[in-house]
Amino acid sequence: MTVIKAYYDGKNFIPLQHFNFKPRQQVLIVVDENEDDETPAQKFLKLSWAGNESADEILSEIGKERVNSSRFGENSALFD
User: Fold this and answer.
1) Which residues share a beta bridge with 13?
2) Spatial separation of the C-alpha atoms in residues 25 and 3, rounded to whole Å
3) CA atoms within 13 A on the CB side of 68
4) What burial class does residue 58 get, using C-beta atoms within 10 Å of its C-beta: 0-12 exposed, 13-18 middle, 19+ buried?
5) Phi and psi (nearest 5°) for 14?
6) Which residues contact 7 (CB under 8 A, 6 or more apart)?
7) Rounded to the nearest 5 degrees, what angle is found at the Cα of 11, between the Cα atoms of 8 and 15?
8) Contacts of residue 14, Cβ cutoff 8 Å, sequence gap at least 6
9) Which residues sit opposite 14 in a β-bridge?
């Protein structure tokens, strides 16, 4: 048995690794119900932050204090 990670795009399962599937090959799909909608930053902060603030509160504060650099211009999509 080979295990391949994949995601569901709402219509199809998309493999995250290369595998040579045979036509009409049967597969076994195991759903990880522990997956959530947290961003990688939220997961990281949950694991590594010792303060009392939640990951959402920390990310909100970072967003409020962020200042765009004038060298990129006012309409820089990179920092929006």
Assistant:
1) 8
2) 14
3) 11
4) middle
5) -110, 115
6) 13, 14, 16
7) 40
8) 6, 7, 8
9) 7
CB–CB of 6/13 below 8 Å? Answer: yes
Closest residue by Cα to residue 13 from 1, 23, 28, 2: 28
| pLDDT at site 73 | 62
What are 65's two structure tokens? 């204090």
Q: Quick one: how far is CA 73 from the chain centroid?
A: 29
Portion of the chain with pLDDT greater than 70, in percent: 71
At position 78, the amino acid (one-letter code) is: L
Task: Find the length of the chain.
Answer: 80
Residue pLDDT, tens place only, 12-24: 988 988 999 999 9
